[in-house]
Automatic annotation (TrEMBL), chain A:
<feature type="transmembrane region" description="Helical">
    <location>
        <begin position="12"/>
        <end position="33"/>
    </location>
</feature>
<feature type="transmembrane region" description="Helical">
    <location>
        <begin position="233"/>
        <end position="254"/>
    </location>
</feature>
<feature type="transmembrane region" description="Helical">
    <location>
        <begin position="260"/>
        <end position="281"/>
    </location>
</feature>
<keyword id="KW-1133">Transmembrane helix</keyword>
<feature type="transmembrane region" description="Helical">
    <location>
        <begin position="320"/>
        <end position="337"/>
    </location>
</feature>
<feature type="transmembrane region" description="Helical">
    <location>
        <begin position="87"/>
        <end position="104"/>
    </location>
</feature>
<dbReference type="GO" id="GO:0022857">
    <property type="term" value="F:transmembrane transporter activity"/>
</dbReference>
<dbReference type="InterPro" id="IPR001851">
    <property type="entry name" value="ABC_transp_permease"/>
</dbReference>
<keyword id="KW-0547">Nucleotide-binding</keyword>
From TrEMBL, chain B:
<feature type="transmembrane region" description="Helical">
    <location>
        <begin position="61"/>
        <end position="84"/>
    </location>
</feature>
<keyword id="KW-1003">Cell membrane</keyword>
<dbReference type="GO" id="GO:0022857">
    <property type="term" value="F:transmembrane transporter activity"/>
</dbReference>
<keyword id="KW-1133">Transmembrane helix</keyword>
<feature type="transmembrane region" description="Helical">
    <location>
        <begin position="186"/>
        <end position="209"/>
    </location>
</feature>
<dbReference type="GO" id="GO:0005886">
    <property type="term" value="C:plasma membrane"/>
</dbReference>
<feature type="transmembrane region" description="Helical">
    <location>
        <begin position="90"/>
        <end position="112"/>
    </location>
</feature>
<feature type="transmembrane region" description="Helical">
    <location>
        <begin position="133"/>
        <end position="156"/>
    </location>
</feature>
<keyword id="KW-0472">Membrane</keyword>
Amino acid sequence: MKVDIKGFAKPLIESLIAVIIGILVGAIILAFSGYNPVEAYSALFDGALGSKYGWAMTLSAATPIMLTALTFGLGAKTGLFNIGGEGTVYFGAIAALILTNIWGNILMGLLGGIIAGIAWMAIPALLKVFRGVNEVVSTIMLNWVAYFLALYIIIQKIPNPKDPNKTIAIPLSARFPIIIKGTELSWAFAISVIAALVAYYILWHTTIGYELRVSGYNERAARYAGINPKKTVIWSFVLGGIMSGLAGAIEMMGRPPSYAISQGMANIYGYGFDGIGVSLVGRNHPLGIIFSGIFFGMLKAGATAMQIEAGVPLEMVRVVQGIIVVTVAIPGLLDLLKRVVRK
Amino acid sequence: MMDTALSILIGALTAMVPLVLTSVGATVSERAGVVNIGYEGILLMTAFFGAMFAEISGSPWIGLIGGAFIGMLLGMLHGFITVYLKGDHVIPGIGVNLLALGVVAFGIPAYWGTAGQHQVPSNFRITPIIKTAYGSLSPMVFVTIVIAVLTHWVLFRTPLGLRIRSVGENPEAADALGINVERYRFLATVYGATLAGLGGAFMSVDWLGTVTKQLSAGRGFIALANMVFSGWNPLRALLGGFIFGFFDNLSVWVRTTPAIQKIVPWQFVATLPYLVTLIIVAGMIGRVRAPKADGKPYKRE
C-alpha cells in the first residue's frame, strides 16, 4: 500500500507522531518514577481542556510562547538558529514596565517591548554580520548576560516600594482587557495571533520575506541572485527581536494577577526556551506555530492541574516537550516509521 | 594578596575540568565532522544522574562513570540522528538541551523531593588528593590533563587520529580509501559526549556538590567557544579551558566577596564568563579554521 502524502500533510503528520512519542515516553518515565501515567495525563488534559476556564488558561499560556516561537521560526526560515528569545523577553518586560509607568497606555508598552527587542537582538546580529560569530553561541551567551542584567535592574532599579518581591506594576490604564472574567486570558492573545499572521504575510507576500526565505533555503543561491546576506541576517534578527520583545511586554500588560515581574523572574523565565520547541513542532511556519503554541499552552496550563490532582511535579511537561523536540529532529520520521512497520 | 591569587589559581584548575573535558570531546567530534551543540544539556543531565548514581551506589566514582555512561547514550542518540539518518546537526542538540531542562527540573523534586536544588552529601563526593590552605585539588584535575594530552597525541600522532581527521576534512576521499566514514563519525561523536558526561558528573559529585536546574550555566557553550578558541586542538583547549575556568572561578569569588560587592554589583561580575566568551570568539574568527566537512551530513554517492 502506498500512501501519497503531499507537502503540507507530511510535516503535520510527523509533528503529530513526535507529539505522540513525547507523550508515550513521558508515560514511561512517569511509571518509572512511581506515578500513575493515566491519572497524571487525564488530570493534565482535563485541567487544560475540560472546561471554559481550562481553555482560557491554555490560550493565555500560549500567548507568550507563540511570540518567542516566531523569533526562532523566523530565524530558522532564514537559515539562522536564533536562540536569543529568552533574554529578549526579559528586556521586553522591563521596557514595558518602565514606559507604561511614564505614559500609562498599552501602545507605549508595546513600543517599549519592540524597541527593547530590536536593541538586544542587534548585538548578535552585528556580531554575526561583522565578526561572523555563530548565532547559537552568541545568543546563548547573551541570554545569560541578559539574565544577570535583568536581575540587577529588577532588584536595584525598579523594585516595588511596598513589596520587595516584585517590581513596579503596569498601571491600570495600560492593562489589556480580560476576555473571560476570572481567568488569565486577555486580549493580549490577539496580539500573538496577529503577529503570527503578520510574520506569515511578510515571509510569503513581501520582497524582503522572499529574500529571507531564499537565504534560508540556499545561501549560495541567494548570493548568486544578488541578495545581500548581511541584510537578511539583520532583518531576521530585527523581526525576531520584535516578537520576543513583544512577548515580554504583553506578558506584563496582559497576564493577571501581578502585572509585574515576580521574584527570581519566575513569571517571565523559560518562554524563550519553550518557544524553540513550539517553533520546531510547528515546523518553523507562522501558521503552524499558532497551533503548536496552543498545544504547548495546553501542556503548561494542564501541568498545574496534574500537580494538584496527581501529585506529579509540573516540570514533567518540560520532559515531554524535550522528547517531542528530539523526535522532531529525526529527519524523514514518517518514512522511517513506515520502513520499521513494513519490516 | 598572594593567598587570594593562589586560591583563584587552584579554583581555576577545578573550574577548568568540565570545560576542558567537553572541549576536547567536542574537538574530536568536530574533527570527524559532527557538530553537537547539545553539550549544555549533556552536562546538566549527567550532573543529575552522576549524583543519583553516586548516592545509589555509595561511590562518587560510580557516579562519575555513570555520568560518562549517560553522556555516551546521549552521544549515541546524536550520532544515530546525524550520522546514520543524515539529519541536521544543530536541531538534535537543541532538543537535548531542552530535554535536559525538563529531566532535571522534573527529576530533582521527583527523586529527592526537594524543589529546584539538591545538596550532594559529602560522603558521596570525591575526596581531594592535594589539600592546601588555599584550596584543594581533585584527582579529576589530573585525569583531565591526561585525557587532553592523550587525545591530542592520538589525534595528531597516530593512524587512528589521521583517519578521524580525514572523515571530517574530506569524507569522499576517506571513503574512497576504504575508511568507514559513518563508523568513525559515530564513534567520535560518542567519545565527545562521553567526555562531556564525565565533566557533568564531576560538577555534582566533586566540584560543586550540588544539583540545580541551572547547574551547567552555559558551560557547554563556553566549552564550544573554547574549542573554537583552540582552533580544534586539544592541547590549546587545555590552555583555553584554564583561562575560561579562571573567569568562571573569578566571578564566583567576586560574587561572594563582600568588599567588592559594595563597589560592583554581583550581577555585573556574573556576566563576565559569558562576555569573555563572546569577545574571545569574536576575536578568534578568521584566525582559526574549522574542519572542512564539519557539520555536513555525508551521503555516499
